[in-house]
Amino acid sequence: MLQIPSRVELHPLTLSDQDEFCTLVRASSELHLPWMRLPTNAQEFLDWMRRFDDGSNQGFLVRVRDTGAAAGTVNINSIIRGRYQGASLGYAAFAPSAGQGYMTEGVAATMRYAFTDLRLHRLEAGIQPANKASLAIVQRLGFRYEGLTPAYLYIDGAWRDHERWSITAPNPWTPDPSLPEV
Question: How far is residue 51's CA from residue 98's CA, in Å, rounded to a whole number?
Fold first, then answer.
């Protein structure tokens, strides 16, 4: 895993982030569509936040250390324990901070958290083939290309193909207690 000095911090996404989050998502619509759909109003945000209630998904704001500005968002989705010990990543930059490397640092910080604190062994990212900015992030961070999945996710009114990229925890890795011994 690429070690990058971090100019960012991860902050768990909370209900109090609603106004800032929705305002930044609306300002970033040209960046996000057709790659993803994020909440743009209070009801959508509340619905979005419910996905984090049971602990199988975790959401973060990537904040610039020096200013506190939200540069983007990263989610650890569909955390699976047992023999798998993995999850998928979703991430999006916010327009005011896009192109400055903050999301690469935010995804790297999320990887460190996932591999050390959550003790996950594998992270996956599904990215639409034309989303060059997102592909560049996983490539910089050492993810491996695993193939193309046709019609993988329903986004912006259509089933979208996605490239699958993954990375596993660096050695030494301390397994989560839910990993069976045999």
Answer: 26
- How far CA 71 is from CA of 24, 28, 67, 106, in Å, comes to 9, 11, 10, 9
Nearest to 142 by CA among 165, 113, 117, 119: 165
| Residues 121-147 pLDDT 10s | 999 999 999 999 999 999 999 999 999
Reported as a pLDDT band with limits 50, 70 and 90, residue 27 is very high
* CB-count burial class (<10 Å; 0-12, 13-18, 19+) for 12: exposed
* pTM over the 0.85 mark: yes
**Kind and range of the H or E run holding 156:** none
Going by C-beta distance under 8 Å and a sequence separation of 6 or more, which residues neighbour residue 53? none
Q: Which domains does the chain have, with CATH numbers?
A: 8-168 (3.40.630.30)
